Amino acid sequence: MPKKLKSRKRPARIAVGESGVHGRGVYAMQFILKGTRIIEYTGERVSWEAAPNDENDPHTFNFGLENGEVINPEIGGNNARWINHSCDPNCEAVEEDDRIFIDAIRDIEAGEELFYDYALEIDEPITEESKKKFACRCGSSKCRGTMLDLEL
Ligand SMILES: C[S@@+](CC[C@H](N)C(=O)[O-])C[C@H]1O[C@@H](n2cnc3c(N)ncnc32)[C@H](O)[C@@H]1O
Ligand SMILES: [Zn+2]
Fold this sequence. Notes:
Elements: E1 14-18, E2 24-28, E3 37-40, E4 44-47, E5 63-64, E6 69-72, E7 84-85, E8 91-96, E9 99-104, E10 115-116, H1 128-133
Parallel strand pairs: 7-10
Antiparallel strand pairs: 1-2, 3-9, 4-6, 5-6, 8-9
Residues 86-87, 136, 138, 140, 143-144 line the site of zinc ion.
């Protein structure tokens, strides 16, 4: 029987910092192996209709689920909310049982910013104007110029 017992905090795998793409972003603090489940996108679940939205503001934290609900990280959210979009991402958002997880789809080196493809959906036809409103600044050679999902 041990005389002393303590829990051990693992070193942080990710951290929030200033992003070269937009505002704050999330960075790997250590090597992350392809396939690693990095973090859950947490927050309050609300209906799409009740989700906070300013239609003139392309800045969004709402994450849409297949069941029509939206995760709003302003209540109960974590650092996943700061992960930026890239058209050539190193992570993907995976939905399982109405939960969203961010998984590494490539090996990620310490110091790299984490990105997933937002594939944003809007409730109107995509136009050149809406593509510009949701313009992407990921800077990758595969950049499609917008954070909108063009494959709908
Ligand atoms: C969930 S927030 C990500 C955190 C954000 N960087 C911040 O500091 O608030 C999503 C918003 O960040 C911005 N953003 C993320 N990735 C971007 C990109 N590749 N190009 C342009 N804006 C981006 C957009 O305004 C988007 O709606
Ligand atoms: Zn892009």
